[in-house]
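Team,

Forwarding the record for the chain on the shared tracking sheet. I've put the sequence and predicted structure together so nobody has to dig through attachments.
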Amino acid sequence: MTSRTSAKSRLNLFSKHLDSKPFLELNTPFSTERSGSIEDAQGNRIPRNKPQELKKPEPEQLPKKEEPPKMASAQAPHPALMIPGPIEFDDEVLKSMSFYSESHVGQPFVNCFSEVLQNLRKLFQTTDPASQPFVISGSGTLGWDQVAANLAEPGDEVLVLHTGYFADSFADCFETYGAKVTQLKAPIGDRPQLDEIEKALKEKKYKIVTVTHVDTSTGVLSELKPLSDLVQKVSPETLLVVDGVCSVGSEEIRFDDWKLDVVLTASQKAIGCPAGLSILMASGKAIEVFKNRKTRPTSYFGSWKNWLPIMQNYEAKKPSYFATPSPQLVHALDTALKQILSRPLEQRFADHKAASKKIKQAVTDYGLKQLASKPENQANGMTAIYLPEGITPPDVLPNLLKKGVIFAGGLHKEIATKYIRCGHMGVSVTDPNRKDLTKAIESLKEALTEVGHKV
């Protein structure tokens, strides 16, 4: 090869890098109109009406590179978020948040919202057409507001089964709307027993009974089916309302089979979608109680008078409007629900049970105790862990953070300085490529050792 030929060859290589035309078309709307023709690796133009397979470069032109190791996530490096919500999110769910802006009453978005509502029926396991899912911008707390504003009227009797901090808050919400609240409390780490509940139901007529399926402050799990059976036997007119903020997606819920009237939750926990959506399923019975109110709901934003026709229209793929939803969050929820439902729900619940068992065994091995000491009271999506005597959350949590893991401090006001909480929900336990669970267990051991606890 002459020096002139060699120089020309190098010049051609430089000019290819300076070419303003893209090698491949942009995968964006209207990119076909904006871009010119494309070329193969040798610079040959490819006619648009005659697509052909691009030729592979010769081995000597493109050095062979080793395949990078498969990563569990393409997200920026960050500590593993092992708290009882928000949880770690799947990459595809986060990508859905970057969906381009669209009209909330345009047909493409309405179709997406319709799918979300239909898939929520599958997640909650209801096929009753009289039941109604709601998805409203807000946190899980908005679910309390919906229940109290729409189903309770001033003077109505409400029985709140207390297993931790969040029962107090739900009771406060009911009282805000004028209901008369009775709390049936259990010792910390336990739950009210069925015979105590039966006694309470026989002593007074309650319009609503509420139960926190998993109380995020204590990690206590309440059994729903036996409770529902009891309510149906003793007071069948009473509505059974479930606070499932920390359970939906990690604990089994059979809405129809267990005759539940309301289950409320939020997007950022086991469902695995960023925070910002209040999600609720209401039974036909609950809807009828709402329709037969004697007084107007005293919440405007949370009123089912405003939201019920919107949700019914969205599910029927009809554009409708009361208040603007978040299209990006709805798209993220759509992705999260499709991921959940791509496998049998039984397998998902089994994964959470297995992860829970692994965490709880480590807690025992490290000489620690749980707030929920009885196995039947222990949630599958989180664990509340008593620290050794003389050690407080500020002694342990910073060390965990240095090791790349985030646990939560105590939340129950009576014992907040004595325990920490670990969340194990969603992709952290269902994605086999993620090592969040193992990292959490190993980091806890190291953090405890560093503060003088003999493991």
